[in-house]
Specification:
The structure holds two protein chains of two kinds. Chain A is mainly α. In chain A, 69% of the residues lie in helices and 0% in strands. Chain B has 16 helices and eight strands. In chain B, strand 3 and strand 4 form a beta hairpin. Chains A and B meet through helix 1, helix 2, helix 3, helix 5 and helix 6 of A and helix 3, helix 6, helix 7, helix 8 and helix 10 of B. Chain B: Keywords: Cell membrane, Membrane, Transmembrane, Transmembrane helix, Transport.
């Protein structure tokens, strides 16, 4: 993933070219320029839909009005950022001019760490189990990966069907003599299920990466530990964990970045509710910029740039960590 | 212990218990407590990972009345009905406990308060019998009904075939373009040395760090400027150039020997022909991984279609499914059938591609 490593490996065009055949495009522009013909479609798309938008976003965030086209948008300076950050008391979202932004931010600040810690813990545990010499290993690997393939909408509707008032979970609870709860209507339980459902949907992805990391650890290290009759816990602490650290770091950063961007599942599962209990940052951007009328593109752009800033810090962290891990 | 003992032990390994056979490690080693914990954990995981989806699929075969039952029934059940002379509709069957403790099977005509009017289907001439509701138990039978699916696919209101078409079109076209575009770029970046190649590669890889959500607003603007709002192409074009695709294909193409290309040039093959006829076929394992990822993410895409596809005719399955759920009255019978239908293609893909997918992710590391 690290660009420096990629670039070190440049292949060559043969220094002495055999007489090239001159047909079509190649005849017109010459063989030297052929690589650009291959690159242009991709570069156009990259520029148009990835690089250019970053700059347009900055422009949007410093302009106002609900008009989409740049020529209709008057410059308003940092007003959008000021609106977002305007709070009398930063600990109480209700005192902010954009209280929803702060609620979404607050939710994300609880959601992301909770989800990441649980996700990595569960994924690691699963990967360790799958790395053992067990029967049906291939099958079990598939089992945990299965939800990753489901669409977020299907994931959300499946769980909604289970968690609803008359759903399977309440049916099970009642069968063992407990009383059911309206899980998605109370803000605490809805939030807890938001975390649980997103972990359910994505843990397979991290499990597979961690499993690949575990398998890269040489067997003979474990054999040696076995000779010394080290306990399972000790083997895990002293061998598995340190050798897995580089992969764990990648998984951690990746997990944070994707966790911050959570949207689809919760949009369908809870719609951000009850109230704003499960509204996260991306849904706020969507609501402000697209769902609510009038559309406030400027505010949405400002919020997404703030979000991008956070993600940039984490990406930089990843690069730094993976570089230092590689140097060890 | 003598040498002889060693030999004897080696010849007669301890007979493993039944549990040991099931839970034992491969190679017949003795099962350790950690093996039991591992299997327990994995079996629990099996239930948690599959049960919700299985439950959804089973539920989609229930009748609307059965879906309302609480506590829910595990399997789809329907009340048996019987046609009785003199009644237009088939009547539901009940097992009724009589005063003397016998059980007789009667058909219910109607319910009035705590009593029900019933009739003996075998002897309709005997007239109506009044039965206490508390003594009557409906006769239920497991029956998977495909009515929900039939209703979903035939009701005029549900343009489901259009949504399926839209989703398929986006997935197939976007994946095809992704493969061609990314492999062309990867070819240029792996098989030529030219001024600007480093810059081009950096530009492409830099987009890895730009999350889609951050550039949501400007991407919408560009799609709108191109006049593609509400068009399927508005969802296809922004997603076709994936940096990981280029990266993966480039790494793979670097392993293809340059001598092969030189030999082709000797034979007067054009550069395009070399790409199309030599490099592309040789890269098929990498192309397969990129294709799987592209299909997965395009079929499951939600946020971009949600913003760009603003008219019902251009909805994808995912959008239709989500809008279905927010509509005023939730029709769980149709919703469950549609959810199952949406998940089905990927479930099949999963069965066939499971091995490639898991090893593909493991080798590429990052989506």
């Amino acid at each position: 993933m690290h660009p420096g490593r990629v670039l070190a490996n440049v292949a060559t065009l043969p220094a002495r070219l055999v007489e090239p055949v001159m047909t079509g495009v190649q005849k017109t522009i010459g063989i030297k320029r052929m690589p650009w013909i291959f690159l242009i479609p991709n570069l156009t798309a990259v520029l148009l839909f990835a690089l250019l938008p970053v700059f347009i976003n900055i422009f949007y965030s410093v302009t106002g009005s609900d008009r989409l086209y740049p020529t209709d948008r008057p410059f308003i300076g940092m007003a959008n950022y000021e609106t977002l950050l305007d709070c009398r008391n930063y600990l109480q979202p209700s005192t902010c001019s954009r209280d929803l932004f702060w609620r979404a931010l607050g939710n994300s600040l609880v959601f992301v760490p909770t989800q990441v810690v649980l996700m990595i813990g569960i994924s690691l545990l699963t990967a360790i189990c799958l790395n053992r010499e067990i029967r049906g290993r291939g099958f079990f690997r598939g089992v945990f990966f299965f939800p990753v393939m489901l669409s977020p909408v299907v994931v959300a509707l499946t769980w909604q069907w289970i968690l609803q008032r008359n759903g399977a979970l309440n049916g099970l609870l009642e069968a063992v003599g407990l009383s059911g709860i309206n899980w998605l209507v109370h803000s605490d339980t809805a939030f807890a299920w938001a975390v649980a459902v997103t972990i359910w949907a994505h843990m397979g992805f991290y499990t597979i990466i961690l499993l690949a990391g575990l398998q890269a650890i040489p067997r003979d290290v474990y054999e040696a530990a076995k000779m010394d009759s080290a306990s399972h816990w000790r083997v895990f602490r002293r061998i598995t964990l340190p050798l897995l650290l580089p992969v764990l770091l990648v998984v951690f950063v990746l997990c944070v970045i994707r966790s911050v961007q959570t949207f689809d599942e919760l949009y369908v599962l809870t719609g951000g509710g009850p109230g704003s209990a499960t509204m996260l940052m991306v849904q706020y951007i969507y609501e402000v910029g697209f769902a609510a009328q009038p559309r406030n593109f400027g505010l949405a752009a400002a919020a997404s740039l703030l979000l991008g800033l956070v993600l940039l810090v984490f990406t930089a962290l990843q690069l730094k960590l993976s570089r230092s891990a590689r140097n060890d | 212990m003598t040498d002889l003992d060693d030999i004897r032990i080696a010849r007669n390994p301890p007979t493993p218990s039944l549990l040991g056979l099931i839970f034992g490690k491969r190679g017949g080693r003795k099962a350790d407590w950690t093996d039991y914990v591992t299997y327990g954990y994995l079996l629990l995981g099996l239930v948690i990972m599959f049960a919700p989806v299985l439950w959804l699929v089973i539920s989609s075969f229930k009748t609307p009345a059965n879906l309302q039952d609480f506590p829910p029934t595990l399997l789809p059940v329907t009340t048996e009905t019987v046609s009785v002379e003199g009644f237009d509709e088939p009547l539901p069957l009940y097992d009724v406990r009589t005063e003397d403790g016998e059980t007789i099977r009667l058909a219910q005509i109607r319910r009035v308060g705590l009593n029900a009017q019933m009739i003996d289907p075998a002897n309709p001439g005997a007239g109506r019998i009044v039965v206490k509701v508390a003594n009557a138990e409906p006769v239920r039978k497991i029956r998977f009904t495909i009515n929900n699916y039939v209703n979903l696919l035939t009701t005029a209101g549900a343009d489901i075939w259009r949504y399926v078409y839209n989703s398929l079109f986006i997935t197939v076209v976007a994946t095809a373009i992704t493969l061609v575009m990314n492999s062309m770029a990867a070819f240029a970046l792996s098989k030529y040395r030219f001024r600007g190649s480093t810059a081009a590669l950096t530009a492409i890889l830099a987009t890895l760090m730009i999350p889609a959500t951050v550039v949501l607003v400007p991407v919408y603007l560009i799609v709108a400027q191109l006049g593609l709002v509400g068009s399927l192409w508005g969802v296809i074009l922004p997603t076709v150039a994936t940096p990981t695709g280029v990266f993966l294909l480039r790494q793979y193409m670097l392993t293809i020997p340059d001598e092969l290309l030189e030999a082709a040039r000797m034979d007067h093959a054009s550069e395009w022909r070399i790409f199309w006829r030599i490099v592309l076929p040789l890269s098929s394992p990498a192309l397969a991984v990129v294709a799987i990822f592209s299909i997965l993410s395009r079929w499951n895409d939600f946020l971009l279609p949600l913003i760009v596809l603003n008219n019902r005719e251009s909805f994808t399955l995912q959008l239709a499914l989500a809008s279905f759920q927010t509509e005023f009255e939730i029709r769980y019978d149709l919703l469950l059938a549609m959810t199952t239908l949406t998940a089905l293609p990927l479930a099949f893909a999963f069965i066939f591609l499971q091995r490639y997918i898991t090893s593909g992710i493991a080798s590429t590391g990052i989506k």
